[in-house]
Each structure stands twice: as C-alpha cells, then as structure tokens.
Write a structure and sequence with these properties.
3 strands, globular, alpha+beta, 3-stranded antiparallel sheet
C-alpha cells in the first residue's frame, strides 16, 4: 500500500504497480477505481478469485495473467496465519 486504496488502484490501472492486494475493503475508497482498473484491462477479484463486488472481503487487482497465481499465494498465506 502506497497511501490510499484510490491511489494504489490508480497505479495498477496506469501500470506503475503490477499487483494490488487489499485484505480489507471500504467501498468509498475503491468503487470508482475498480471501474478504472477494469477499463484499463486489469482483473479485479475477491480473495477467493470470484469477481469483485461491493460485498467482497478483499481486493486483488492485477493483469489477468497474474490473478490465478496471486489468489493461490494469498490463500496459502492467509491459511498459514489462521489458528488451527
């Protein structure tokens, strides 16, 4: 994170950042930029890889080629951090 969700998502759309992973969401910080990212060709999904909606628990935005691998990495990392 570079400061705000809006800036981070704008940088994905602009190509300054390859990937954005936010493990919590606030609709006012992401709504407009999610559309901008999608229009720029980025894939925007929830933590489980499903399409991102305003009810999503998390946000992963990246090139469509990277998203599947990112979802796997985030799932592995978050499962290790949960108590057994």
């Amino acid at each position: 994170m570079f400061g705000s969700a809006a800036v981070d998502l704008a940088w994905v759309a602009d190509g300054r950042t390859d990937v954005l992973v936010m493990l919590s969401n606030d609709q006012w910080g992401t709504a407009a930029n999610l559309l901008i990212d999608r229009e720029a060709g980025a894939a925007v999904v929830d933590i489980d890889g499903s399409p991102h909606t305003m009810a999503s628990r998390a946000t992963i935005a990246a090139s469509p080629k990277l998203v599947a691998d990112l979802v796997e990495l985030v799932a592995a990392a978050t499962s290790r951090s949960r108590p057994s």
